[in-house]
Amino acid sequence: MLCHGPIVALGPYWDYDGPVARFRMYPTREQEEQMLLHCAHARYVWNLAVEQHSHWRKGHKAAPGFAEQCRQLTEARREHEWLGAGNQTVQVQALKDFAQAKNAKFTSGFGEPTWRKRHRHEGFRIIGDDRVPEFSDDGSPRVNVKTGKQVMGRKATVQKLNKRWAQVRVPGCGWVRFRLSAKGKGAALPDAKTFRITFKNGQWHAAFAVIPDPTPAPGTGEVIGIDRGVTITAAISDGRKLNCPQATTRERAQIRKHQRRAARAPRNSPAKTAEYAKVAKLKAREANRRKDWCEKTSTMLARTYDLIRFEKLRIRNMTAKAKPKPDPDLPGQYLKNSRAAKAGLNRAILAQGWGLLRQRTEHKAPGRVEDVPAPYTSLRCSPCGWIDKNSRKSQAEFVCTNCGFTCNADANAANNIAAGQDADIPRPRRTAGAGGTTTH
């Protein structure tokens, strides 16, 4: 057995979270209760696997792998009625997800698998129960070397009901309906082997593992640069300025109202939970708008331009919290470090969707996206190459102190980014006073 041994209501939309197609699900009350039970079982098995591996120490026997954990799971299902009443496919897939996360801890960027919490990590993965023949890339059937028979793969069982509705078969729940998009790729049935069901902010979603085809290049040879900022989300070198939609003034007021009510409610009370749920629902609406804008904008960029250049930004470092400043005169005390202002700037940066826009553009236009080093792109005059910090008069105004060139500061930076890192971009001399260009 598993042990401690040595071991809002939004409309449909096509959304990508990496190589997946995501659809809004509408289960019945009975189906929702069963899927919540699947979430609990998957979370329980995952946390047991995390606990097993947390006991491992260097020099000790290796923690149990996927095959051993599956054997332990079979024993645990016999001994524990609650676990045995659940679906074995859901529980085995949770162990498989853990094994994949463990193997990818150095390449995924997320590190070691961590604990999953109720109400925060609600979801489970399903592998399709439909058997379909598999074929090689050249169209020939894949044959098992030992048996000589054709290899049969797995496929999620999906049916289209009408133009806007479809249904997928979920173990223990039967057919669960989900909403198709009105047009585009989201209007077609997903063809995937596996899919993941998640529950967040009162909404169910099914994410099918479908890798979309790259967007073909227009063939015009046009190159653009994109400068990302807070006031203007994306300034394009062709003169266009794009802004990511934010929460409205009314929604921000509602968020503050519910946060105040939650702060005044008794601890661990239903009222506090309800108010925080309302806050989460409003913030989820803003996040959905941001994702939708990033999807549409990245598609437009991939279809319109042959080469897309972004300013290389370290967003993780830019949004790090302010470090405390110890007071040298009073041990144990700290000086003011503008923590509140930095937190506000971090929220403003993350609300623009910089990273998602860059990531989705790379997914849709592979090989046609480049990163340009950020230094001096906002201080260099795009026509003459003069670099001077005094040329940046304000956030929006750029006036070159050498040639007198005047334009929007973000548009000037976008032009420098479009030139690329291979262009002859001058750098200032250390001895230059007001600025200047490097001569070789």
Q: How would you describe the overall organization of this protein?
A:
The protein is an alpha+beta fold and 440 residues long. It has two domains: 21-208, no CATH class; 223-374, no CATH class. Helices cover 34% and strands 18% of the residues. It has ten helices and 18 strands. The strands form six sheets. Strands 12-11-10-13-16 form a five-stranded mixed sheet. A four-stranded antiparallel sheet has the order 1-9-8-2. The radius of gyration is 27 Å and the shape is globular. The model is unreliable at 1-18 and 428-440 (pLDDT under 50).
Uncertain stretches: 1-18, 428-440
Total of domains: 2
Number of helices: 10
Order of strands across the widest beta sheet?
12-11-10-13-16
> Rough shape?
globular
How much strand content do the residues show?
Answer: 15-25%
Approximate helicity band: 25-40%
- SS-based structural class? alpha+beta
Q: Rounded to an integer, what's the Rg over CA atoms?
A: 27 Å
Q: Calculate the terminal CA-CA distance, rounded to whole Å.
A: 71 Å
Let me know the average pLDDT: 85
Largest pleated sheet: 5 strands, mixed
Number of strands: 18
